[in-house]
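Hi everyone,

Forwarding the result from last night's run.
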Amino acid sequence: MTINSSCCSCNSGQQRWAKSNEPRSATAPFRIDMHTHIMPPNLPDFSKLYGSTEENGEGWMTLRSHYVSTGGVSDLTGAELNKVDMYVGEKFFRTVEPNCFDPVVRMKEMDATGVDVQVISTVPILFSYDKPIEPAAALARYLNDHIASVCRDNPQRFVGLATVPLQDVSSSVAELRRAKSELGLKGVEIGTEINGCSLDDPKFDLFWAACEELDMPIFVHPLGYELERENKSRWGNYWSAWLIGMPSETALSIHTILSSGVLVRHPKLRFCFAHAGGAYLPLLGRIQHGYDCRPDLVAHRSEGVSPQNYLESHQHNIWIDSLVHDPDLLQLICKKIGPNRIVMGSDYPFPLGEMPNPGEMLSSDAKVGELFSSETRARMLAGNAIEFLGLGDMYQEHKI
Protein backbone atom coordinates (compact mmCIF):
# COMPACT_ATOMS: atom_id res chain seq x y z
CA MET A 1 0.00 0.00 0.00
CA THR A 2 1.31 3.43 -0.92
CA ILE A 3 0.03 5.99 1.55
CA ASN A 4 0.81 9.09 -0.49
CA SER A 5 -1.19 7.77 -3.41
CA SER A 6 -1.87 11.12 -5.07
CA CYS A 7 -0.60 14.65 -4.95
CA CYS A 8 -0.52 15.85 -1.34
CA SER A 9 -2.17 19.12 -0.43
CA CYS A 10 0.16 20.25 2.30
CA ASN A 11 0.74 23.56 0.48
CA SER A 12 -2.90 24.22 -0.28
CA GLY A 13 -4.43 26.99 1.78
CA GLN A 14 -7.87 25.69 0.93
CA GLN A 15 -7.21 22.37 2.68
CA ARG A 16 -5.10 23.48 5.63
CA TRP A 17 -7.67 25.38 7.66
CA ALA A 18 -7.69 24.27 11.31
CA LYS A 19 -7.06 27.16 13.68
CA SER A 20 -10.10 28.27 15.63
CA ASN A 21 -9.30 31.96 15.17
CA GLU A 22 -9.29 31.77 11.36
CA PRO A 23 -12.41 32.08 9.23
CA ARG A 24 -13.33 28.78 7.65
CA SER A 25 -12.91 28.48 3.91
CA ALA A 26 -15.91 27.28 1.95
CA THR A 27 -13.63 24.59 0.54
CA ALA A 28 -12.26 23.40 3.89
CA PRO A 29 -12.65 19.62 4.26
CA PHE A 30 -15.87 18.30 5.77
CA ARG A 31 -15.31 16.89 9.26
CA ILE A 32 -17.24 14.23 11.15
CA ASP A 33 -15.90 13.64 14.65
CA MET A 34 -16.66 9.99 15.38
CA HIS A 35 -15.52 10.02 19.01
CA THR A 36 -17.28 12.57 21.21
CA HIS A 37 -19.11 12.22 24.50
CA ILE A 38 -22.20 13.93 25.87
CA MET A 39 -24.33 13.59 28.97
CA PRO A 40 -27.63 15.09 30.12
CA PRO A 41 -27.49 18.25 32.21
CA ASN A 42 -29.09 16.28 35.05
CA LEU A 43 -29.70 12.67 36.04
CA PRO A 44 -32.41 10.98 38.08
CA ASP A 45 -31.29 10.05 41.60
CA PHE A 46 -31.13 6.29 41.12
CA SER A 47 -29.99 5.77 44.72
CA LYS A 48 -33.42 7.00 45.83
CA LEU A 49 -35.35 5.28 43.06
CA TYR A 50 -33.66 1.88 43.39
CA GLY A 51 -31.63 1.95 46.61
CA SER A 52 -28.04 3.00 47.23
CA THR A 53 -26.39 -0.25 48.34
CA GLU A 54 -24.18 -1.86 45.70
CA GLU A 55 -22.35 -5.16 45.95
CA ASN A 56 -19.07 -3.64 44.80
CA GLY A 57 -19.38 -0.58 47.01
CA GLU A 58 -19.74 1.88 44.11
CA GLY A 59 -22.74 4.18 44.18
CA TRP A 60 -24.77 5.74 41.39
CA MET A 61 -23.53 8.68 39.38
CA THR A 62 -25.03 12.00 40.43
CA LEU A 63 -24.54 15.50 39.01
CA ARG A 64 -24.17 18.52 41.27
CA SER A 65 -23.70 22.22 40.65
CA HIS A 66 -20.05 23.19 40.81
CA TYR A 67 -19.08 25.03 43.97
CA VAL A 68 -16.16 27.45 44.02
CA SER A 69 -14.51 29.13 46.97
CA THR A 70 -14.87 32.91 47.24
CA GLY A 71 -12.92 34.48 50.06
CA GLY A 72 -12.72 31.16 51.84
CA VAL A 73 -16.47 30.59 51.60
CA SER A 74 -17.96 27.98 49.24
CA ASP A 75 -20.54 29.49 46.98
CA LEU A 76 -22.17 29.22 43.57
CA THR A 77 -20.76 32.17 41.67
CA GLY A 78 -20.14 33.76 38.33
CA ALA A 79 -18.41 31.98 35.48
CA GLU A 80 -18.30 28.68 37.39
CA LEU A 81 -22.08 28.46 37.71
CA ASN A 82 -22.63 26.32 34.63
CA LYS A 83 -19.99 23.72 35.46
CA VAL A 84 -21.16 20.40 36.87
CA ASP A 85 -19.46 18.10 39.36
CA MET A 86 -19.82 14.35 38.77
CA TYR A 87 -19.98 12.13 41.86
CA VAL A 88 -20.00 8.35 42.14
CA GLY A 89 -21.97 7.89 45.32
CA GLU A 90 -20.30 10.42 47.61
CA LYS A 91 -16.95 10.25 45.83
CA PHE A 92 -15.99 13.12 43.52
CA PHE A 93 -15.18 11.93 40.00
CA ARG A 94 -14.60 15.02 37.85
CA THR A 95 -15.85 18.50 36.98
CA VAL A 96 -17.20 18.99 33.48
CA GLU A 97 -17.62 22.16 31.47
CA PRO A 98 -20.88 23.17 29.77
CA ASN A 99 -19.60 21.73 26.47
CA CYS A 100 -20.11 18.28 27.99
CA PHE A 101 -23.87 18.68 28.28
CA ASP A 102 -25.03 21.85 26.48
CA PRO A 103 -25.62 21.36 22.72
CA VAL A 104 -25.61 25.12 22.08
CA VAL A 105 -22.12 25.46 23.57
CA ARG A 106 -20.98 22.41 21.62
CA MET A 107 -22.20 23.80 18.30
CA LYS A 108 -20.43 27.11 18.94
CA GLU A 109 -17.20 25.23 19.56
CA MET A 110 -17.80 23.04 16.51
CA ASP A 111 -18.25 26.17 14.38
CA ALA A 112 -15.09 27.72 15.83
CA THR A 113 -12.95 24.64 15.17
CA GLY A 114 -14.38 23.47 11.85
CA VAL A 115 -16.23 20.34 12.96
CA ASP A 116 -19.36 19.88 10.86
CA VAL A 117 -20.87 16.85 12.60
CA GLN A 118 -20.32 15.13 15.94
CA VAL A 119 -21.15 11.49 16.55
CA ILE A 120 -22.28 11.65 20.17
CA SER A 121 -22.15 8.82 22.69
CA THR A 122 -22.53 8.67 26.43
CA VAL A 123 -19.71 9.17 28.94
CA PRO A 124 -18.37 5.64 29.55
CA ILE A 125 -18.70 5.74 33.33
CA LEU A 126 -22.46 5.91 32.76
CA PHE A 127 -22.48 2.42 31.16
CA SER A 128 -23.25 1.14 34.70
CA TYR A 129 -22.50 -2.48 33.83
CA ASP A 130 -21.92 -3.19 37.53
CA LYS A 131 -25.45 -2.20 38.54
CA PRO A 132 -28.62 -4.32 38.84
CA ILE A 133 -30.32 -4.75 35.49
CA GLU A 134 -33.61 -2.96 36.18
CA PRO A 135 -32.08 0.44 37.05
CA ALA A 136 -29.25 0.00 34.55
CA ALA A 137 -31.79 -0.55 31.76
CA ALA A 138 -33.75 2.48 32.95
CA LEU A 139 -30.60 4.60 32.86
CA ALA A 140 -29.75 3.38 29.34
CA ARG A 141 -33.23 4.39 28.15
CA TYR A 142 -32.85 7.80 29.80
CA LEU A 143 -29.44 8.39 28.17
CA ASN A 144 -30.62 7.21 24.76
CA ASP A 145 -33.72 9.40 24.90
CA HIS A 146 -31.47 12.36 25.67
CA ILE A 147 -29.03 11.65 22.83
CA ALA A 148 -31.93 11.13 20.41
CA SER A 149 -33.46 14.46 21.44
CA VAL A 150 -30.18 16.30 20.79
CA CYS A 151 -29.97 14.70 17.33
CA ARG A 152 -33.63 15.39 16.59
CA ASP A 153 -33.26 19.07 17.51
CA ASN A 154 -30.05 19.47 15.48
CA PRO A 155 -30.17 16.84 12.72
CA GLN A 156 -27.43 18.42 10.60
CA ARG A 157 -24.92 18.58 13.46
CA PHE A 158 -25.30 15.41 15.55
CA VAL A 159 -25.50 11.67 14.95
CA GLY A 160 -26.28 9.50 17.95
CA LEU A 161 -24.97 6.19 19.31
CA ALA A 162 -26.97 4.18 21.83
CA THR A 163 -25.83 2.63 25.08
CA VAL A 164 -27.19 -0.71 26.31
CA PRO A 165 -27.04 -2.60 29.65
CA LEU A 166 -24.85 -5.44 28.42
CA GLN A 167 -24.79 -7.19 31.79
CA ASP A 168 -28.11 -8.58 30.52
CA VAL A 169 -28.04 -9.51 26.84
CA SER A 170 -31.80 -9.82 26.31
CA SER A 171 -32.41 -6.36 27.78
CA SER A 172 -29.62 -5.00 25.59
CA VAL A 173 -31.16 -6.46 22.44
CA ALA A 174 -34.53 -4.93 23.35
CA GLU A 175 -32.97 -1.50 23.92
CA LEU A 176 -30.92 -1.80 20.73
CA ARG A 177 -34.10 -2.40 18.75
CA ARG A 178 -35.80 0.58 20.39
CA ALA A 179 -32.76 2.78 19.73
CA LYS A 180 -32.84 1.86 16.05
CA SER A 181 -36.57 1.81 15.29
CA GLU A 182 -37.98 4.44 17.66
CA LEU A 183 -35.08 6.79 18.31
CA GLY A 184 -33.23 6.66 15.00
CA LEU A 185 -29.79 6.18 16.54
CA LYS A 186 -27.13 5.01 14.10
CA GLY A 187 -24.99 2.63 16.17
CA VAL A 188 -24.13 1.54 19.69
CA GLU A 189 -21.27 2.30 22.07
CA ILE A 190 -20.05 -0.46 24.39
CA GLY A 191 -17.16 -1.01 26.78
CA THR A 192 -14.06 -3.12 26.25
CA GLU A 193 -15.37 -5.54 28.87
CA ILE A 194 -18.69 -5.97 30.62
CA ASN A 195 -18.47 -6.08 34.39
CA GLY A 196 -15.34 -8.25 34.14
CA CYS A 197 -16.59 -10.35 31.23
CA SER A 198 -14.62 -10.26 27.95
CA LEU A 199 -16.30 -9.58 24.63
CA ASP A 200 -15.48 -13.08 23.35
CA ASP A 201 -17.94 -14.67 25.79
CA PRO A 202 -20.49 -16.76 23.84
CA LYS A 203 -23.36 -15.14 25.74
CA PHE A 204 -22.86 -12.01 23.62
CA ASP A 205 -23.58 -13.87 20.38
CA LEU A 206 -27.26 -12.90 20.60
CA PHE A 207 -26.26 -9.26 20.85
CA TRP A 208 -23.84 -9.51 17.91
CA ALA A 209 -26.58 -11.17 15.86
CA ALA A 210 -28.96 -8.30 16.67
CA CYS A 211 -26.31 -5.74 15.65
CA GLU A 212 -25.94 -7.56 12.33
CA GLU A 213 -29.69 -7.80 11.77
CA LEU A 214 -30.28 -4.13 12.57
CA ASP A 215 -27.11 -2.91 10.81
CA MET A 216 -25.92 -1.19 13.98
CA PRO A 217 -22.14 -0.60 13.96
CA ILE A 218 -20.37 -0.84 17.31
CA PHE A 219 -18.04 1.75 18.86
CA VAL A 220 -15.85 0.19 21.57
CA HIS A 221 -14.47 2.43 24.34
CA PRO A 222 -12.23 1.44 27.28
CA LEU A 223 -13.13 1.83 30.96
CA GLY A 224 -9.91 3.14 32.49
CA TYR A 225 -11.57 4.16 35.74
CA GLU A 226 -12.15 0.50 36.65
CA LEU A 227 -8.41 -0.20 36.79
CA GLU A 228 -7.97 2.18 39.71
CA ARG A 229 -10.86 0.49 41.50
CA GLU A 230 -9.17 -2.89 41.08
CA ASN A 231 -5.65 -1.84 42.09
CA LYS A 232 -5.12 1.75 43.18
CA SER A 233 -1.41 1.33 43.95
CA ARG A 234 -0.70 -0.09 40.48
CA TRP A 235 -2.83 2.23 38.36
CA GLY A 236 -3.40 5.33 40.48
CA ASN A 237 -0.10 7.15 39.98
CA TYR A 238 0.94 9.28 37.00
CA TRP A 239 -2.53 9.01 35.37
CA SER A 240 -1.46 5.47 34.49
CA ALA A 241 -4.95 4.00 34.18
CA TRP A 242 -5.78 6.49 31.44
CA LEU A 243 -2.40 6.73 29.69
CA ILE A 244 -1.32 3.06 29.81
CA GLY A 245 -4.36 1.14 31.02
CA MET A 246 -6.86 2.36 28.45
CA PRO A 247 -4.73 1.48 25.39
CA SER A 248 -4.04 -1.92 26.95
CA GLU A 249 -7.74 -2.51 27.60
CA THR A 250 -8.61 -1.73 24.02
CA ALA A 251 -5.86 -3.97 22.65
CA LEU A 252 -7.10 -6.83 24.81
CA SER A 253 -10.67 -6.40 23.58
CA ILE A 254 -9.57 -6.51 19.92
CA HIS A 255 -7.37 -9.52 20.69
CA THR A 256 -10.26 -11.45 22.24
CA ILE A 257 -12.64 -10.69 19.37
CA LEU A 258 -10.16 -11.56 16.62
CA SER A 259 -8.91 -14.70 18.37
CA SER A 260 -12.31 -16.16 19.23
CA GLY A 261 -14.06 -16.44 15.87
CA VAL A 262 -16.64 -13.73 16.65
CA LEU A 263 -16.27 -12.29 13.16
CA VAL A 264 -16.45 -15.72 11.54
CA ARG A 265 -19.82 -16.32 13.22
CA HIS A 266 -20.96 -12.73 12.63
CA PRO A 267 -19.27 -11.55 9.42
CA LYS A 268 -21.44 -8.45 8.98
CA LEU A 269 -20.37 -6.80 12.23
CA ARG A 270 -18.58 -3.45 12.07
CA PHE A 271 -16.44 -2.50 15.07
CA CYS A 272 -14.69 0.83 15.57
CA PHE A 273 -12.19 0.93 18.43
CA ALA A 274 -11.38 4.17 20.24
CA HIS A 275 -7.91 5.69 20.61
CA ALA A 276 -6.67 4.12 17.35
CA GLY A 277 -7.21 0.63 18.67
CA GLY A 278 -5.00 1.28 21.67
CA ALA A 279 -1.85 -0.85 21.70
CA TYR A 280 -3.14 -3.52 19.31
CA LEU A 281 -1.70 -2.50 15.94
CA PRO A 282 1.83 -1.80 17.27
CA LEU A 283 1.68 -5.31 18.80
CA LEU A 284 0.27 -7.03 15.70
CA GLY A 285 3.57 -8.62 14.69
CA ARG A 286 3.99 -10.15 18.14
CA ILE A 287 0.39 -11.35 18.20
CA GLN A 288 0.61 -12.92 14.74
CA HIS A 289 3.87 -14.63 15.72
CA GLY A 290 2.15 -16.03 18.80
CA TYR A 291 -0.68 -17.29 16.62
CA ASP A 292 1.85 -19.06 14.37
CA CYS A 293 4.17 -20.51 17.02
CA ARG A 294 1.64 -21.43 19.72
CA PRO A 295 -1.65 -22.12 17.95
CA ASP A 296 -2.65 -24.29 20.91
CA LEU A 297 -2.79 -21.12 23.02
CA VAL A 298 -3.81 -18.47 20.50
CA ALA A 299 -5.57 -20.13 17.55
CA HIS A 300 -7.76 -22.78 19.19
CA ARG A 301 -10.96 -20.70 18.78
CA SER A 302 -9.99 -18.68 15.73
CA GLU A 303 -11.79 -20.93 13.21
CA GLY A 304 -8.77 -20.71 10.93
CA VAL A 305 -8.61 -16.91 10.54
CA SER A 306 -5.44 -15.24 11.84
CA PRO A 307 -5.22 -11.74 13.35
CA GLN A 308 -3.38 -10.55 10.27
CA ASN A 309 -6.16 -11.88 8.00
CA TYR A 310 -8.72 -9.66 9.70
CA LEU A 311 -6.74 -6.52 8.92
CA GLU A 312 -6.16 -7.04 5.20
CA SER A 313 -6.98 -4.06 3.02
CA HIS A 314 -10.34 -5.36 1.80
CA GLN A 315 -11.73 -6.13 5.27
CA HIS A 316 -14.92 -4.40 6.41
CA ASN A 317 -15.15 -5.43 10.09
CA ILE A 318 -12.50 -3.47 11.99
CA TRP A 319 -12.11 0.30 12.09
CA ILE A 320 -10.24 2.62 14.43
CA ASP A 321 -10.28 6.31 15.17
CA SER A 322 -7.39 8.69 14.52
CA LEU A 323 -6.66 9.71 18.11
CA VAL A 324 -2.91 9.08 18.39
CA HIS A 325 -1.39 12.57 18.96
CA ASP A 326 1.54 11.45 16.80
CA PRO A 327 1.95 11.68 13.00
CA ASP A 328 4.51 8.85 13.01
CA LEU A 329 2.08 6.51 14.76
CA LEU A 330 -0.67 7.57 12.37
CA GLN A 331 1.57 6.50 9.49
CA LEU A 332 2.20 3.13 11.16
CA ILE A 333 -1.45 2.33 11.82
CA CYS A 334 -2.31 3.33 8.25
CA LYS A 335 0.22 0.78 7.02
CA LYS A 336 -1.29 -1.87 9.26
CA ILE A 337 -5.01 -1.33 8.71
CA GLY A 338 -5.22 0.99 5.72
CA PRO A 339 -6.31 4.66 5.65
CA ASN A 340 -9.83 3.69 4.53
CA ARG A 341 -10.48 2.17 7.95
CA ILE A 342 -9.50 5.20 10.04
CA VAL A 343 -12.10 7.73 11.15
CA MET A 344 -11.50 11.09 12.76
CA GLY A 345 -11.96 10.92 16.52
CA SER A 346 -11.15 13.53 19.14
CA ASP A 347 -12.58 12.34 22.50
CA TYR A 348 -14.25 15.76 22.75
CA PRO A 349 -14.69 17.44 25.20
CA PHE A 350 -12.10 15.81 27.47
CA PRO A 351 -8.52 17.12 27.81
CA LEU A 352 -6.79 13.84 26.91
CA GLY A 353 -8.41 14.04 23.49
CA GLU A 354 -7.43 16.19 20.53
CA MET A 355 -8.36 19.46 22.14
CA PRO A 356 -9.05 22.30 21.60
CA ASN A 357 -9.00 21.73 17.80
CA PRO A 358 -10.49 18.34 16.84
CA GLY A 359 -9.10 17.08 13.55
CA GLU A 360 -6.18 19.49 13.57
CA MET A 361 -3.52 16.84 13.02
CA LEU A 362 -5.30 15.35 10.00
CA SER A 363 -6.16 18.69 8.45
CA SER A 364 -3.13 20.89 9.06
CA ASP A 365 -0.11 19.08 10.50
CA ALA A 366 2.75 19.60 8.03
CA LYS A 367 4.11 16.06 8.39
CA VAL A 368 0.68 14.52 7.88
CA GLY A 369 0.30 16.71 4.79
CA GLU A 370 3.52 15.20 3.42
CA LEU A 371 2.44 11.63 4.20
CA PHE A 372 -1.14 11.63 2.94
CA SER A 373 -2.91 13.01 -0.08
CA SER A 374 -5.77 15.48 0.32
CA GLU A 375 -8.20 12.77 -0.80
CA THR A 376 -6.91 10.32 1.84
CA ARG A 377 -7.16 12.94 4.57
CA ALA A 378 -10.67 13.86 3.45
CA ARG A 379 -11.65 10.21 3.81
CA MET A 380 -10.27 10.08 7.34
CA LEU A 381 -11.90 13.39 8.24
CA ALA A 382 -15.39 12.35 7.09
CA GLY A 383 -15.76 9.84 4.27
CA ASN A 384 -14.78 6.81 6.32
CA ALA A 385 -17.20 7.68 9.11
CA ILE A 386 -20.00 8.05 6.56
CA GLU A 387 -19.22 4.53 5.35
CA PHE A 388 -18.83 3.03 8.84
CA LEU A 389 -22.12 4.45 10.11
CA GLY A 390 -24.03 4.00 6.86
CA LEU A 391 -24.76 7.73 6.52
CA GLY A 392 -24.55 7.92 2.73
CA ASP A 393 -28.13 9.11 2.37
CA MET A 394 -27.56 11.93 4.87
CA TYR A 395 -24.21 13.10 3.52
CA GLN A 396 -24.29 11.99 -0.10
CA GLU A 397 -22.19 14.91 -1.32
CA HIS A 398 -19.36 14.05 1.10
CA LYS A 399 -19.00 10.38 0.22
CA ILE A 400 -15.60 9.55 -1.28
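Confidence is low (pLDDT under 50) at residues 1-26, 71-79.

Cheers,
N.
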